[in-house]
Amino acid sequence: MRREIPLILTAFVGFTYILQFFIPHAPFNQLDRMLNEWIQVIAAFAIWLGALNLMKVSLNKVSRQSENWPFALITIFGFLLTVIVGLFLSGGRGYQSPGTGFDYIYRNIYAPLSSTMFATLAFYVGSASYRAFRARTKEATMLLLAAFFVMLGRVPIGDYITAFLPKGYRLSDFATWIMNYPQTAGYRAIMIGIALGIVSMSLRIILGIERSHLGGEE
Amino acid sequence: MFEKLLKLDRRVIFIFIAVALITPFFLDIKQPMTVSPEVRSLYDEFEKLKPGSKVLISFDYDPPSAPELQPMAVAMLKYCFAKDLKVYIIGLWPQGPLQANLAVEAVKADEHFKDDPPQYDVDYVNLGFMSGNEVVIKSIGSDIRRTFPRDNLGNPTHELEMMKGVTNYSNFDLIFNLSAGYPGTVEWVLFAVGRFNAKLVAGNTAVQSPGMYPYLNSGQLLGLAGGLKAAAELEDLAQYYGRGTKFMLSQSFAHLTIILFIIIGNLAYFATRGRNR
Predict the structure, then answer these.
(1) CA B5-B10-B15 angle, 5° bins
(2) What SS3 class is residue A134?
(3) Which DSSP symbol is given to B8?
(4) How confident is the model at residue A102 (pLDDT cuts 50, 70, 90)?
(5) What three-state secondary structure class fits A30?
């Protein structure tokens, strides 16, 4: 029964979702609404589960003094500080309201730190482009040329360089053409492939053919 | 020499990119701005709206993507408030409503709005973050007040003046999704457009925007602003110049630097290829 009940539940929920799409009337729309609310509640718990798991991993790291444990200590401190400030020091207002302690942490610590981390990517992209974009083969040359035209066409300087050409033939127009036709054609093929894969895998799960999500055999 | 170039220390490239990014902050060069068709379409959708129309803006991004998406948010919020459109803010990312607060503050600080700043529950409401990803998009199709029982300030949603008569997508004239990943524009297309026929335009990061062109070409997405260049284009169209326009010069210089290095790398590669053979 430990395997049959989850399979029955999966099939019931899966078919309910399919039916409510085609029959948006009672009782299917009510079932849909109820299931949606359950998913939102489960998703909210998942956030807490993730946060508590982060704490568990970080506390383990600190207690064992394993590699880079001071960073785990900063994580614990940051987490507790944010939670305490958000829950207890908002002065009766919503914790995300402008002017609260949580808002101060977000603006002055979280936002600059996370932006800085992401901004370092610009340097790695530059270095990686220098090494990766080499015209070694025909395919690599095509990729290189596409990157060249899109990178120049997607900044105003591209049009400045080709300002002598009539409108419609400038670098930005060429970049738009690349994005609209070759790029979209390739992307569409990938998307159709992925969608068909999702449909077939979903049907396999709903019909109980695919059971790997239930874990190993007893 | 070419052998040395092939083995160029990456820190040299880092320094050149840093100089290319920082130098433009001290320059005052006006760049010609060509508006791309997809950004023009996005702007045209806003232009079609009459004063009093309701716009749902979903802030689905966090600070790392803010340099690209925040200028779009600020420019279009200014446009909405100037045109007296009613703005409903939500977030499928926890950081989204906070980014919205920053954007609204930027609007209030603008000299155009000093005398008549946008007012909460009159010009805009911030319904906050709700967990559940695409399920939230689906739930709004049934009842937005049930999906967001309280706003970002903790007020019961049904008590808000702006929420009176607002039930689901049929009450919104346009949805503007600012997205940096999942959940984002793809989910809005699949559920809000595919299921409820909502009118959707989107602002995306440059990395994400290529994936949206199939939806743009099929008409499911009515307009698309991709990356900082599109943010600068929106600022140009809305005539509110901000960080999008300012940072565009840095991006131009950085792209030129990277292209220069790619050319140098290829010259070195071809010069040494014969020798290596």
Answers:
(1) 105
(2) coil
(3) -
(4) very high
(5) helix
DSSP annotation of B58 = E
For the ranges A7-11, B25-29, B103-107, B272-276, which has the lowest average pLDDT? B272-276
Residue B265: which of A124, A133, A139, A140 has the closest Cα?
Answer: A133
Q: Which of A13, A116, A179, A188 has the highest number of chain B CBs within 10 A, making it the mutation to test binding with B? A: A179
Secondary structure element (H or E) that encloses residue A186, with its range: helix A184-206
Cα gap B178→B91, rounded to integer Å? 9
pLDDT in tens, B15-48: 999 999 999 999 888 888 889 999 999 999 999 9
Whether residues B32 and A172 touch (CB distance < 8 A) is answered with no
Of B34, B40, B116, B42, give the one whose Cα is nearest residue B78: B116
Question: In this predicted model, what pLDDT tens digit does every residue of A150-172 receive, in sequence order?
Answer: 999 999 988 888 989 998 899 99
Q: What is the DSSP letter of A212?
A: G
Closest CA to A133 of A145, A124, A151, A150: A145
**Angle at CA B213, nearest 5°, toward B210 and B215?**
135
B210–A contact, CB cutoff 8 A: yes
CB-closest option in A32, A110, A151 to B63? A110
